[in-house]
Every structure is written in structure tokens, then in C-alpha cells.
């Protein structure tokens, strides 16, 4: 792999997992941290730089497909299909997709 300037980290993470961020007219919601209010329910949610508070993220994103990338594109990259219980590094991104068949709007 190579680093290409201009590729957002959440886009690179989705590519690592081989998943689309959204399909059709689904919305994409990007948060710099866990929002203080409940996040939007429709489409996909991206939480950037999730180094701590993984328990709160798990509660907030319950019922969604979870993809977590730590240090995406770096030598020490780690990919998870869940939110890790252990503390992850500063460059951790959580992608949360609506479950197939879900009626979230």
C-alpha cells in the first residue's frame, strides 16, 4: 500500500474493510467524537479519533454493524469488526452502518 494525500481516513478505513460508506441516498454522519446528543439514526455514522470511552460508543451504536480501524494505513494498523474493550490509539475510527433490514431513518 501507499499513502496518497487527499484520501480521508474514514474513506481509507472503509476501503480496508471492503465496504461502501453509504448506498444510494443514505446519509453519512461524521462526528469528531461521541456526540453529546443521540446521533442521527439513518445511514452510516463515523466517529473519528476514538482513543477512549469505547463503552459509551458501544452503547450509542448498539444494533449497527461496527467496523473499527486503528492507525489505518500505517504499519501498526489494526482492524476490528467490533469496538475493542481495550483503549485504542488516537488515530482510531469507528464506522457504524445500519444493519440490513433495519427500518432506521
Structure description:
With 105 residues, the protein is an alpha+beta fold. The chain has two helices and five strands. It has helices spanning 9-17, 54-60, and strands at residues 28-31, 44-47, 64-70, 78-80, 92-98. It has a five-stranded mixed β-sheet with strand order 1-2-5-3-4, covered by helices on one side. The longest helix is centred in the N-terminal third of the chain and has 9 residues, at 9-17. It starts with 8 loop residues before the first helix and ends in a 7-residue tail after the last strand. The mean pLDDT is 84.
Order of helices and strands: HEEHEEE
- Which sheet architecture does the biggest sheet show? 5 strands, mixed
The low-pLDDT segments are none
* Total E-strand runs: 5
Specify the structural class.
Answer: alpha+beta
Spatial gap, N to C terminus: 36 Å
Q: Overall pLDDT, averaged?
A: 84
Notable features of this structure?
alpha+beta, 105 residues, 2 helices, five-stranded mixed β-sheet
Short description:
The protein is α+β, with helices and mostly antiparallel strands and 105 residues long. The protein has helices at 9-17, 54-60, and strands at residues 28-31, 44-47, 64-70, 78-80, 92-98. The protein is built from 2 helices and 5 strands, in the order H-E-E-H-E-E-E.
Fold blueprint:
Blueprint: H1 9-17, E1 28-31, E2 44-47, H2 54-60, E3 64-70, E4 78-80, E5 92-98
Parallel strand pairs: 1-2
Antiparallel strand pairs: 2-5, 3-4, 3-5
Amino acid at each position: 500500500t501507499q499513502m496518497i494525500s487527499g484520501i480521508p481516513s474514514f474513506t481509507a478505513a472503509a476501503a480496508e474493510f471492503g465496504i461502501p460508506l453509504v448506498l444510494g441516498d443514505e446519509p453519512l454522519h461524521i462526528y469528531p467524537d461521541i456526540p453529546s446528543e443521540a446521533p442521527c439514526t439513518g445511514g452510516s455514522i463515523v466517529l473519528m479519533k476514538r482513543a477512549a470511552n469505547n463503552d459509551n460508543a458501544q452503547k450509542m451504536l448498539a444494533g449497527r454493524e461496527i467496523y473499527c480501524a486503528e492507525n489505518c494505513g500505517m504499519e501498526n494498523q489494526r482492524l476490528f469488526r467490533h469496538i475493542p474493550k481495550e483503549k485504542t490509539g488516537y488515530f482510531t475510527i469507528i464506522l457504524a452502518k445500519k444493519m440490513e433490514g433495519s427500518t432506521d431513518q
